[in-house]
Amino acid sequence: MDPSNGPAEKRPKTSAEDTTEPIRCKHFVQRKKRYCKMTVGRGKQYCGEHEVHSGNDNLPSLEALGSSPGRIPCPLDPKHSIAATKLEKHLKICNAKPKELPAYVQVGINASSDGEGSDLLNTEENLKLSDVPKDELMALVNKIETVFEEIQIGVIDELILEHDAFKEELGNETYGPQTLKHLVQSASLLGIVERENFFQNDVAFVEFGAGKGQVAFWLATILQQSDLTNVKVFLVDRASHRHKKDNKIEDREIIQRVRADIGDLVLRKLDVLKDSKKVVGVGKHLCGGATDLALRCLIRANLDKSEGGQLQSEGFVFALCCHHRCDWKTYAGKKFLLAKGISRKAFDLVVKMVSWAVCGTGTSRERRNNDTDGGEGIKYGLSRAQREEIGWKCKRMLDWGRIQYLKENGFEAELKFYAKTEITLENVCLIGHIK
User: Fold this and answer.
1) DSSP for residue 419
2) Can you tell me whether residue 184 is helix, strand or coil?
3) Among 206, 157, 156, which residue's Cα sits nearest to residue 397?
């Protein structure tokens, strides 16, 4: 038998195959901090994808390419390249091709500043707390303490509830602490939804920042077991997640999902809500600025009557978190902060200090063990306990600014502890009702 016809692993290798290594692409991938691992064609130094980035300044223009077999950057997204001869075909199917936006998407409509002050001057990028003079930082801390004491922001009542729909699940002994932690939070939030009398006929529940849709799943389950009519659950998230919990609801008439950024969403233009009279917002750990976007989205539904229809924002229950991800442009409480002497630059420092409340020490275990300050973790002239307290006050001050914004736009709002700190350090929720 001719060995050349045998299995590949048994064929004898030629001397060239024994000694010649494949030539790798010489393009340095900055994002990965290494060279491209693709092999190149005979006589070439770059692979087909990176040939366009080879530094050859003599590449022809798009008009002069004609039938040239070379590669060019995609005109729609230069991060990838295409064969010049297939340009016309590629432009029709490229994923970067601008898509026609649905009527309910208006880019940036909920991300405006609402005229809340004109202090929009640029600040230094990547400003670090360690770069701020100690006296300036302490002056800001004292101002935060003063504002906190003036309006008694820290007086928050506990409202930890549980909806009956969760009894069996919460009693499941096979669940680990991580699963139970999320169930306890969802049970309390939906218990609050029930207490606030949001379960009514003709109501559409919108879960903002739905993620995998656990809260929406339980909302739909509760509605299916009730006698309510014309009720539905609508999920909003800008990403597409795998293993979505809402897919387990068989009745697709009661639950629907849309992929959209909260900052671009116009509720009154959603066809799925045209038969609903009221809308109630729900969010579990609505991250940072997403809370402000969701509040504007609900308020706009009440203000913009020109779109017609009978839809009205009735209220919301939002579990708050990640205040360090708030930004000046979208933050809803700028007017309140400016009135209290908190400038744009001070705001940028405040959103960095909030992490002191929930992010631990920020130092390695080895450094903590070698502390020479008796475990106090002195930093910026403040002990670890002092920093945690200041971080918590910063979070509540930002929340109070949101409450003032809501009051100016027809809502009554309050803060409640909806879970124990053993369950989550982000255990405060914002509850609102239309006046």
Assistant:
1) S
2) helix
3) 156
The tokens describing 21, both together, are 């290594």
403, two tokens: 């409450």
- Helix (H) / strand (E) containing 99: none
Instruction: State how far the Cα of 198 lies from the Cα of 215, in Å rounded to an integer.
Output: 15
Crossing angle for the helix pair 289-303 and 384-408, to the nearest 10 degrees: 10
- d(C-alpha 297, C-alpha 294), whole Å: 5
Q: pTM for the full model?
A: 0.78
Q: What angle do CA 5, 10, 11 make, to 5 degrees?
A: 50
Could you report the per-residue pLDDT of 190-245, keeping only the tens digit for each?
999 999 999 999 999 999 999 889 999 999 999 999 999 999 999 999 888 888 88
Cα separation, 32 vs 345, whole angstroms = 34
Closest CA to 149 of 415, 431, 404, 390: 390
Q: Which residues have C-beta within 8 Å of that of residue 412, sequence separation ≥ 6?
A: 406, 432, 433, 434, 435
- The 3-state DSSP composition of the chain as helix, strand, coil percent (nearest 5) reads 40, 15, 45
